[in-house]
Amino acid sequence: MVVITTKKPVDEVLNVLKENNVKKIFIVSCGVCAALCQTGGEDGLNEWKEILEKEGFEIVNGLVVDDVCDNREMAKVLRKNSEDIEKIDAFVTLSCGLGVQSIVETTSKKYPSMKVFVTNNTEFMGMTERIGRFYMRCLGCGDCLLNETGGICPITTCAKALMNGPCGGMVDGKCEVGNYERDCGWVLIYNRLKAIDRLDLFSKLRDARDWSESGHQREVVFR
Amino acid sequence: MAEKKVYSKLGELLAKGEFILTGELEPEKTCDLSHTIQEAKEMAPYVVAANVTDSPLGIVTINSMAASHIIQKETGLECIWQLTVRDVNKLGIAGMIMGAHALGIRNILSLTGDHPNLGDMPETKPVFDLDSATLVKLVREMVDTGKINGHEIEHPPTMHVGAAANPNANPMEAEVLKIGRKAEAGAEFIQTQVVYDLDMTIEFLRAIQKYKVPVFLGIFPMKSYGIAKGFDMFVPGVDVPKDILAKWKSVKTDVSDKKEQKDVYDRLNYEFFKPFISELKKKGLLAGIHCMAVHYTRIFPKLVEVVKA
């Protein structure tokens, strides 16, 4: 699984740094997901060093870090580089939204005024076909239906996330959203369930999703 | 078996097994419904009820519940309130159902709704908390048990609920099984998408006969060649047969007198739909006809002849 990211426009990032009076920067670049998406890693780090230096920012340090989103890993990085951190105005992170927030959470106690900015937009939790082709196949909804839908998720493959599709927007197996270019998720499910001789599951009337446990502020805490 | 409860003229005639003609009204992006009211008045003598659309194609229009209420009040024509699950969550919809009852609405058609991406407000949040089957289930729960989620409604709503079907759907079996879910949810009638292909329609209607839900066949008599061509080009999944398009085109090119043109279009519609519908009626596959040709009210006297034939 990869958290898929895309690059924000450079000017958007530069503007936010200028607005926040940032001069001295520590770049943290994700060596895992963002590296795979070509929005982080070593190449991303070098690219952003060049961009920022050209714009007059001082790069105090720049590191590629595996698991920017792991607070333990980030805490270690911060401990090892505390001298540099004392000198900076902000972190710029080439990661997903988790990486940004991990840095905020791990730095905010010791450096309450530390600013953290991100160069990427976080798109989705993605499946990789090959580099440069990533697809949303799971939303992490917390109530997995895949055992009943032939291993194809209606929440992500149906543009309306319907529990009882296909809808009237399906034409010849294609979806009305995106000009009939993408497959209708519910037709994919129908074809799979037919292939495994379980159309009884397709015929099942499903209740609306229960959002009482799967909204926001979710946590998994088991010890 | 308990006698079927009747809450509207539509429900009453359905229960009697009468062959029914319904029409369609499409309120627009306006707070003044005079055009729609005029059309409602024109079709009222011929139809049992008329659908009132809910921002079709995701293009925002006046709210369909408000429009249904006003049309009923101003014209006496019974409305079938179209409600999509696109824009409001379950909590909001449950409140609307009670509100609709309070406003005198007694028929509802449950629809998914076209995705906002298709319309003129693509930035809005698509809701789809319910879907067209679970909305049917919600209405039936509120009406039949007088409760929502087990909680008592002091004065519960009473209304009939229908759902849509698409005989043109490919793969057809997926659509048929979906109608099974809508029937299980409690749909009391089905209105179909527009059809032009008789064989396919027969195959579909036969396939859904087992669910024992009365079916209104969706038809779209074409007012002019321009309308026919536009329908063929822009309504996804429904093709107007080439010979029909050719006939309609020849009216446009060969008949110069406008009044005569109108008469010929009306006659051609009559000649196409009469045998089409009579074949399906003969086979016992229909409970009625739902005419979706908005802004073409002059066709209704002829349609009534078709329906009664």
What attributes does this structure have?
heterodimer, A: alpha/beta, Rossmann fold, 2 domains, 9 helices, B: 309 residues, eight-stranded parallel β-barrel, 10 strands, globular
Strand and helix map with partners:
The complex is a heterodimer of chains A (223) and B (309).
Chain A: E1 2-7, H1 10-19, E2 24-30, H2 33-36, H3 41-54, E3 58-65, H4 71-80, H5 82-87, E4 90-94, H6 97-107, E5 115-118, E6 120-130, E7 133-136, H7 154-157, E8 170-171, E9 174-175, H8 185-195, H9 199-203
Parallel strand pairs in A: 2-3, 2-4, 4-5
Antiparallel strand pairs in A: 1-6, 6-7, 8-9
Chain B: H1 9-16, E1 20-25, H2 34-43, E2 49-52, H3 64-75, E3 79-84, H4 90-102, E4 107-111, H5 132-145, E5 147-148, E6 151-152, E7 160-165, H6 172-185, E8 189-194, H7 198-208, E9 215-219, H8 225-234, H9 242-254, H10 258-282, E10 288-291, H11 300-308
How would you sum up this structure, described in words?
The complex is a heterodimer of chains A (223) and B (309). With 223 residues, chain A is α/β, with parallel strands linked by helices. Chain A is built from nine helices and nine strands. Chain A has two domains: 123 residues, 3-Layer(aba) Sandwich (Rossmann fold); 62 residues, no CATH class. In chain A, helix 4 crosses helix 6. In chain B, helix 3 links the parallel strand 2 and strand 3. In chain B, helix 4 crosses helix 5 and helix 8 runs antiparallel to helix 9. The radius of gyration of chain B is 19 Å and the shape is globular.
Main sheet characteristics of chain B: 8 strands, parallel, barrel
- CATH top level of the largest domain in chain A is Alpha Beta
Reading side by side through the largest sheet of chain A, how are the strands ordered?
Answer: 3-2-4-5
Instruction: Determine the mean pLDDT of chain B.
Output: 96
Give the SSE order of chain A as H and E letters: EHEHHEHHEHEEEHEEHH
Indicate the proportion of strand residues of chain B: 5-15%
Q: Name the CATH superfamily classification of the largest domain in chain A.
A: Response regulator
Structural class based on helices, strands and sheet pairing of chain B: alpha/beta
Q: How would the global form of chain B be characterised?
A: globular
- CATH level-two architecture of the largest domain in chain A: 3-Layer(aba) Sandwich
CATH fold naming of the largest domain in chain A? Rossmann fold
List unreliable stretches of 5+ residues of chain B. Answer: none
* Sheet with the most strands: spatial strand order of chain B: 1-2-3-4-7-8-9-10
Rg of chain B: 19 Å
Structural class of chain A: alpha/beta
Number of domains of chain A: 2
Q: Please work out how many helical segments of chain A DSSP would assign.
A: 9
> Helix fraction of chain A?
25-40%
